[in-house]
Amino acid sequence: MKIGLMCGREYSFPQAFIDRVNQIGATDGITAELVSLGGTPMDKPSDYRVIVDRISHEVEYYRGAMKNAVLHGAYVINNPFWWTADDKFFNYALMDKLGCAIPKTVLIPQKAYPADIDLAPESLRNLKFPIDWDALLDYVGRPAILKPYSGGGWKHVYKVNDRRELLAAYEQTAPYCMTLQQFINFDQYVRCFTFGKTDITPVAYDVKERRYLVDHNYLSSEVGSRVVRDAQTINLALGYEMNTIEFAIQDGVPYAIDYLNPAPDFERDRITPFYFDMVVDKMSNLVVDRALNGHPSQCWPRWEEMLGIGPATGFTGAPGTTTAPQ
Fold it and tell me: Is the pTM value of this prediction over 0.85?
């Protein structure tokens, strides 16, 4: 059985991961290598039992190839169908319904739209104008955070204290769709490495310096347990088996801030040698297990089931049948 890795501008993780999988998988006939693609026939199964995808969000052809691999039975981490559909605003609303602590968040219209989209005035007829900015700020509180509803890397993120600052920041956001979110004045901040949905490692994170800290006593047992439990709920709902989940902790309450990171940073210099070795080991053991025991159905989200909707609970959303009068 073969395990394939899809990756981009990474230097330390790919080879370390491949070497480790080849080492621990040898007794079961499992090998690992970089995936090689050069045109994908629609009826051709993948050469790989498991694929770890860390780049298809940036290369459209790769994303299509990953979907085709799933169609033909490959186990792809993470699920390319849900990854394509997911966004941060939906995540906030979903996890709020599932009981996690989530900052109050509002989705707001784009300031402007990409030049290659042919929009007429009628295209925006469903938008209210003007936007009641004061009402939105009243809902989330002041100060607030303006940030994209999808994407990452701390790009296009603004802290605003009032309506004037909000509008000034909003002017700079085109063409991105943005969220306005309650500011959490945190006293602790953690990023959780997650593997296989339920294996969670909370790590102290210095937001200002953007660096990981090796501190195994950073969280109290109570807060640490809540962080792990909420991170497990998030991954089970969204189906992610490779993710990082960020919590801003204020007054002992861990608020889930960001958990749409299906291709997390695994570079040794940025996550520290200690956590790098852990990541390589846990990811390698995960994919070997999935190659031996996994089924593609395991990598789908379960949020419908957890909310009590969808086919798994007998609810399909189909209209009820009626009998015509005789």
Answer: yes
